[in-house]
Design a protein that fits this description.
221 residues, alpha/beta, FAD/NAD(P)-binding domain, 3 domains, 3-stranded antiparallel β-sheet, 5 helices, 10 strands, 19% strand
């Protein structure tokens, strides 16, 4: 685990708005508090103007020296979507009607879903959960004899889970709000249900147990 080098490592998390902005406000504040309480960890609310070989320049002019930059990009439509002559929102997403059909296009000729589209007057989060439901909905439309008889698209969130480190996580569902170790256990349990084979469902918990007892494997080359 390179314990001797641990004191030399500093982590700075730069976020232009709010971390975990889609989560409940109390859960988000809990995550921020946990992050700020960690040793050698700083949370900065700003945006990055420039990335250099040995530093990062913030929008306000502050320069943060660094040896490694991990960049998690935001969501944006592909250039193909941006080039289309259709009504879009300020983020470049195509406006659709309640059946996910692009506004202005001939009925049944163009659909926009996921990060590419937004139902006008009914904004939904740009998440995989929403995109998956929209994909199934469009498939239903394409197989329908009469699209007008298909009910408009609707989405009810099944909830969100997020791991925040230190065996703690957040659970945000319409009915349950959890944080801490209990939420971490729920997060791990939900993860196991999404694995594709029984081999992985047996192997992954064993790997987790090994990491819990002996720490993560690391190799000093």
């Amino acid at each position: 685990m390179y314990k001797k080098e641990e004191s030399k490592v500093m982590v700075t998390l730069i976020e232009s708005h709010q971390i975990l902005s889609a989560f409940d406000e109390k859960l988000r504040h809990f995550a921020e508090k946990k992050i700020k309480s960690r040793d050698r960890f700083t949370l900065v609310q700003s945006s990055v103007k420039e990335v250099r070989s040995d530093s990062v320049v913030l929008a306000g002019g502050e320069v943060i020296p660094c040896g490694l930059v991990v960049w998690s990009t935001g969501l944006a439509p592909r250039p193909f979507i941006q080039s289309m002559k259709a009504e879009r929102n300020k983020h470049g997403q195509l406006f659709t009607d309640s059946h996910l059909q692009v506004l202005g296009a001939p009925p049944g000729s163009a659909f926009a879903l996921g990060d590419c589209g937004e139902i006008k007057g009914h904004k939904l989060p740009c998440s995989a959960q929403v995109a998956e439901r929209q994909g199934l909905y469009v498939a239903k439309l394409l197989n329908a004899d009469d699209v007008s008889k298909v009910a408009p698209f609707s989405h009810k969130s099944l909830g969100m889970l997020a791991y925040i480190g230190g065996y703690e996580a957040l659970t945000d569902t319409p009915d349950v709000k959890l944080k801490g170790f209990t939420s971490w256990f729920l997060w791990r349990s939900a993860y196991l249900t999404r694995l594709g084979s029984w081999r992985l469902r047996l192997q992954v918990p064993m790997d987790w147990l090994k990491t819990l007892l002996y720490g993560r494997e690391s190799y000093d080359r």
